[in-house]
Amino acid sequence: MIPNMNSKVAVITGGAGMIGYAAAHSLARAGANLMLVDINAEGLGERRRMLEALGARVETCVADVSRSSDVAAYVEQTITAFGRIDAFFNNAGIEGKLGSIEGYDEAEFDRIIAVNLRGIFLGLRHVLPVMLRQGCGAIVNTGSIASERGLAGACAYNASKHGVIGLTRTAASDVGPRGVRVNAVMPGVIETPLLEAMLHMMFDGDIEAGKRALGKIATQDRIGKPAEVGEVVMFLLSDAASFVNGAAWAVDGGALSTIRH
Prior knowledge:
alpha/beta; Rossmann fold; seven-stranded parallel beta sheet; globular
């Protein structure tokens, strides 16, 4: 059963990406009005057209989530367009370059932390006051299975995604008594351009071999689809998840449940 999100307002960062769009698609089907945020203006325009074809009301905002002024701008634009924010998918992220810690480029480390962790913090920092004034709202932050496991060569990515879960739990503790829920999803190996970029680095350009190898991490012996994450995000943002707060939900085909590989 699809939760009822009729007339609710959802903000989605990373809205031009595959997981962001999948969540937007699920929320549009449930009746939500959407604000899509991304640094990719062309991608935003394409996603907007696709969602409007489904009958959704969609606004877009080009923003760098690591800049406080840009985050404040997308929040203000949402309030101007819709008057409120009921749901927030705090999702934008990057994979960054791979490399061992002892030789990892400091500027690259800072870049990944700025988007993946500072971006999540700034989203919370600017959206929570809106929800607290309303006395209600739901937020889902995007972590990763790298939020709970090490991944050789990905020190910055791992550090950022571990931090996302810490922010999620702290925010849930802060605002749960005041009517706002904050949770996280931890996608596993999901078929996205971000994954393909990582596989290109990890498997010397053989992306299909990488997909076959990483699919074995999951107990279901396959990689996941963006829509499988989007459906979980929609549930957590809906009233159907009214007693779920401070949780980090793995959407990983069982990868974190096992030491199989």
